[in-house]
Amino acid sequence: MENITELKEFLSVPKYISIISHRNPDGDAIGSSLGLYHFLNKFGHTVRVMFPSEYPAGFEWMEDAKKILIYDIEQDDVKDTLERSDIVFCLDFNSLDRIDKSGEIINSLTVPKVLIDHHLDPEPFAEYQLSDITASSTCELVYRFICDFGEKEKLDETIASCIYTGIVTDTGSFRFSTSPRLFRVVADLVELGVDDYTIQIKIFNTLNEKQLRLLGHCLARRMEILPEFQAGIIVLNKKDYENYDIKRGDTEGIVNYLLMLKDVKVAAFITEQPTIVKISLRSKGDFSVQEIASKYFNGGGHKNASGGYSFKSLGWMIHRFKEVLPKYKEQLLQS
């Protein structure tokens, strides 16, 4: 961050600070927000964390997670909090439309905004920006922000555990988006007391029976393999959501099972929700799904993990994805 000295001076006296991340928050959104929250609290600031929608129950173990404000549930509280803020930190998203109505409120504020993010093409809405698409996660950038802030000694086990959570989820337990720089960060976090084994157990080994049965249903009855494109698709319709009483977080990670197949390089998880159809895309190796998400499905993300949506039908979304694949056939076979 180029103007970190100016920002540090602004925060040299206690402020009312809001931290916000994107709709459908994942481990990186939650970990980066809570990590920064615990760090800023050390300086006597009043800090509030908020998301547009609820986070998966599997992250409730994180310290102060239950203090997070949810716009869908507490609209007035979120609005009042944002309007009281002296500064707003925007984490793990690159445009204000990723935070829905909250984005309109933030856009109207005259207070400084800080963007910390690792997605492509960030919109220029923030006065302070730490954006790096080579970073594994926004949590890695929060760690860098703390170091650049000149307060690395303020890192403790609580902050480190939050940061580790976002790193391990966004890298798929260190399967992608890694670098020597990242592993040096992780080594520092473990030295601070992070119990990496226990955190991974809490994140990945806490399914309930319904979620495991849903996974079995997806693999047995909703999976289609397209060998000519080295692609796989899993589809859930509205009836599936009703039959399995699917809630937020229940489908987390299902798309990744397709990539366990030796000859599948690109995976799509398509879900029919009440007013929208969503597509989650994952890939192996050098093949990028970011272009597919942004060009054809109103979305974006990262090289190996992106997503999009449509207000058209489930059938349209499935057909459209299959229609797009031939355009990338040569690239898939070479990657």
What does this structure look like?
The protein has 13 helices and twelve strands. The protein is of the alpha/beta class. The protein has two domains: 4-204, inorganic pyrophosphatase (n-terminal core), CATH 3.90.1640.10; 209-334, Diaminopimelate Epimerase, Chain A, domain 1, CATH 3.10.310.30. α2 runs parallel beside α5, α2 (27-41) packs antiparallel against α6 and α5 (138-148) runs antiparallel to α6 (157-170). The chain is globular, with a radius of gyration of 20 Å.
Radius of gyration: 20 Å
Q: Span from first to last CA?
A: 34 Å
Structural class: alpha/beta
- How many helical stretches? 13
- Please name the CATH architecture of the largest domain: Alpha-Beta Complex
What are the segments in which pLDDT stays under 50 over at least 5 consecutive residues? Answer: none
- What's the count of strands? 12
Helix content: 25-40%
Q: In terms of quaternary structure, what is this?
A: single chain
CATH classification class of the largest domain: Alpha Beta
Provide the descriptors you would attach to this structure in a database record.
335 residues, 2 domains, alpha/beta, 6-stranded mixed beta sheet, globular, Diaminopimelate Epimerase, Chain A, domain 1, 13 helices, 6-stranded parallel beta sheet, 39% helix, inorganic pyrophosphatase (n-terminal core)
